[in-house]
Each structure stands twice: as structure tokens, then as C-alpha cells.
Write a structure and sequence with these properties.
The chain is mainly α. The protein is about 40% helix and about 0% strand.
């Protein structure tokens, strides 16, 4: 879907900024973070910390 089509379908105008991601790659590189001493979190670790646990009933 083009940006114009998405806007016509109801996407907010700020969403058009995501088109930039199709032009300029800014990939996350865990190896770069490690070299800079930035701690990494896996998705599972993040989810465990952020999501509320729901017990089955």
C-alpha cells in the first residue's frame, strides 16, 4: 500500500514518517551495542518484565 493509499484509508499523517524506514536503513546491531557496553534484553526477558502475568482459570 502506498503512503497515499494508507492516508486515504485512515492512517494518521504522522504514520507517513515510516516511509523513511524504507529508504534509510537503521538496523539494530546487537554486536554494536555489546561493543559500547550497552546491556541487551531479549524479547522474552522484556515481555517477562513488562507484561502482566495472567493465571489460567
Amino acid at each position: 500500500m502506498s503512503v497515499e493509499e494508507a492516508l486515504d484509508a485512515g492512517m494518521p499523517k504522522w504514520g507517513a514518517g515510516h516511509e523513511w524506514n524504507n529508504v534509510v536503513l537503521q538496523p539494530a546491531r546487537p554486536e554494536f551495542a555489546r561493543e559500547l557496553g550497552i546491556p541487551l534484553t531479549t524479547f522474552a526477558e522484556w515481555a517477562d518484565q513488562q507484561l502482566t502475568h495472567v493465571s489460567a482459570q
